[in-house]
């Protein structure tokens, strides 16, 4: 398998380990204590990765707002149906609402997957309100540009 490499605003991620290390570095630089970083790093979810149908990719995305509310770190990892790393991305943006930030990272993930040739995409995001907005068809009428863009990417040929 050919590993993906993506450079976004200086953030290169050639493996999931590099993406995690980069996210931790940004979290530390945003003013969180080492204890908080350790908790974020060692936390586990109850749900395990679910295998996808052949030809599909899964994008796991998240965003983190700095303690002093001046920066937001966003990033994502793209894996194939066997769970193998394909590519990843990370970037730092200006502060915004968490809803808009989470929508922005989904748009970035979808854009990166599309540009790499992956058209069948499943998104994993921890913002239940955003996922509900997308799944119930409200993204197409949203006045939040990033949410509307998610709708556009979902309907792209």
TrEMBL record:
SUPFAM superfamilies named among the record's database cross-references: Ribonuclease H-like
Highest taxon above the source species: Eukaryota
GO molecular function: nucleic acid binding; RNA-DNA hybrid ribonuclease activity
Domain RNase H type-1: 60-146
Name by which UniProt lists this protein: RNase H type-1 domain-containing protein
Organism: Gossypium barbadense
